[in-house]
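Researcher: I'm preparing a figure for a lab meeting and need a structural model of a single chain. I don't have an experimental structure, so a prediction will have to do for now. The sequence is pasted below. Please return the structure as tokens so I can convert it later.
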Amino acid sequence: MGMAVLAARTGGALGAPAAAEGETLPGRVDFPTHCPAPQEAGLPPADGPTTARIAVDNPAPQVGDTVTVTYQVLRTPAVNPVGGELPADSLTPTGRILLAGAQSGEVTVVGAKRNDPVPAGAALPAVTMTGTFTVTAPGETTLAPGGYTLHTSHGLDLDTTCTADAGSAAPVSARLTATALPTANLRSVFLGAAQGRPGARVKVTAAGFPPGAAVTVAGRAGAAETADRASATADGLGTALVELPVTDRATTAVIAYEGAAWSARQGSGPAAYTVVDAAPPPSSGTQKVTATVEPGVLGMTQTGEDITLGAVSYGDGGAAPGRIGTVTVTDARGGPAGWSLIGKVTDFTGPGGIRIPGASLSWTPRCVAAEGSRSTCTPGSAGVVGPEGALLASAPDAPLVGGTFTIDATVTLRVPPYTPPGAYTAVLTLTLS
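Model: Understood. Here is the structure written out token by token.
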């Protein structure tokens, strides 16, 4: 098992542009609104339709992704509340976006103080507000415009708050469909001995199973199971301990799995085991000469301890790139079992406890087998690492495996726009089995 600390840094600033009034865009909706004027203005309430639009930067996120939402008020019945002309850049908008469906709740959005001069009594201009939220559930989520407040600062600080008329359902302006994060199979099996005579009882540890799961431990010869079999129930930590009597001389490996039969999704990779033939020597006066090649171990080393990712600008957000420390896997077991190297990462924690989800980190693995190795090395798929884990590299089962393998990966952290400046740190854990 290996661990590395990853760090990313944000800084700089950039404002968001506003949408043009009357712009024809997908997702435009109208809803009736009631906009009481500030008491100090001495004006009657303004009632009428609000034309709005909501857009998302990623309509097909995964659970754990951060989505940026934009709320544009393209037309409002609210009017200039000050006694004369409202100067440029003195209007600040805030609002709410309503979530429903797979995920419910509200998203607060804020706009920049940016407007052209508004004549006395004229309608207030179009505004653009942005915000972010974290996707917490798979499925379709709808986004509808909620109330908004137009704050003017000229002489007096005045708030004009517009809300949807009572009894009017908020119209859906945007949708996104989230998918669940892929989960890695972390089931594994470890043997107390790698060889023994027929009938030997082998201590087996099956780990990484759901607590309370019924676990079958069985012998295997190639892709077929042998007659050797035992069962146990996984404890609260997902571990099952059994003694497996190995009597079938065809057994070359031991596996563990849930359900009626082994599968790649619910079973462990095989652990190599050798049955040592105990047949008596012939009685003709000849002697049987036996030499034994002792199996070695499966292990790994990693260069470096910390990984420093590139910096991104505050406001822009974007990709913070980097590379993991090179991992060297050595397989000297000599059996038929392949291996897999899994990585998982915690959330990134920054100043004041602010977090960037671990699911925002993705990688592109690379794996090379040294010359003379018996096994091939396959890199994992490019994609999300996340707290659930992802495959970095693997070697398949084969009649005889082994070798030395060099593994590395480029990594990229997606930093949301307007993430507060500072250093954000997470822990990447690599597990070989």
